[in-house]
Amino acid sequence: MPRTVQQLFDLSGKTALITGGSRGLGLQLAHALGEAGAKVLLSSRKAADLEEACAELQAAGIDARWVAADCAREADIHRLADETLQRLGPVDILVNNAGASWGAPAEDHPLEAWDKVMNLNVRGYFVLSQVIAKKSMIPRRSGRIINLSSIAGLNGNPPAMTTIAYNTSKGAVLNFTRALAAEWGKYNITVNAICPGFFPSKMSAGLIEAMGEERMAAAAPLRRLGDDEDLKGLCVLYASDAGKHITGQWLAVDGGVSAVTGA
């Protein structure tokens, strides 16, 4: 008998690792996966932020743990993977969300800032995906990888926005998602991407302040920015058996911005 919709979306018994999970979009994704039944392990650089995030998740009845790690550092990535597997067992769902941005005109963009963004936003995604796949997903012939890209990876910016490294990294995440999906489909590993639009967060706070929240909202067909619920449904779709035949895909969650900018 085919399973019901509720059964297909149920993540009970699954384990999820979410990088950049202590706040913002990562914490929203952790809530989504935990509310669907998964055990979650959060990672970011700061232990205090992780403790606070885990307390919030646990208060909501979610089994949540944390490991502090910098996903721009290869040694930290390997330690994160090993500690996760040791403490929670096999990883069923990997959410690559940790990210950085930098604002500077292209002609003056510091090379060290370019490397900082690329090391975390692209290299970090690859190294952690590789380690988790080799140690957990490939041997079990099962896995879900969800990569956070952005609508910034779909096209260029208005002239006032100078985030060339961030845009380049998020465009790279999209083709990384497609290429990895093509290679790892034989292991029953799906790889998909989410492209958020503008959501209030620590990373976007400066841009929203500079451009004006009302002005940014007015540019979206839905006339609003994203909120604390808007990524949940897509995340659980990608992570669950409801999305088991979806791989190598991306979807913008942006209030329709990309529909009118031609992405």
Report what the structure shows.
The structure is a single chain. Strand 5, helix 6 and strand 6 form a beta-alpha-beta unit. The mean pLDDT is 94. Helix 2 crosses helix 9. The chain has one domain: NAD(P)-binding Rossmann-like Domain (Rossmann fold). It contains 10 helices and 7 strands. The protein is an alpha/beta fold and 263 residues long. 46% of the residues lie in helices and 14% in strands.
Topology, please?
Blueprint: H1 5-9, E1 15-19, H2 24-35, E2 39-44, H3 47-59, E3 64-68, H4 74-88, E4 93-96, H5 111-140, E5 143-148, H6 164-184, E6 189-196, H7 205-211, H8 213-218, H9 232-239, E7 250-253, H10 257-261
User: Could you name the CATH topology?
Assistant: Rossmann fold
Distance between the termini: 40 Å
Overall structural domain count:
1
* Mean pLDDT over the residues: 94
DSSP summary, beta strand count: 7
CATH secondary-structure class: Alpha Beta
Number of helices: 10
Give the strand order of the largest sheet, numbering strands 1, 2, ... along the chain.
3-2-1-4-5-6-7
The CATH architecture can be named as: 3-Layer(aba) Sandwich
> Helical residue percent?
40-55%
Indicate the low-confidence ranges by residue numbers: none
In N-to-C order, the SSE pattern is HEHEHEHEHEHEHHHEH
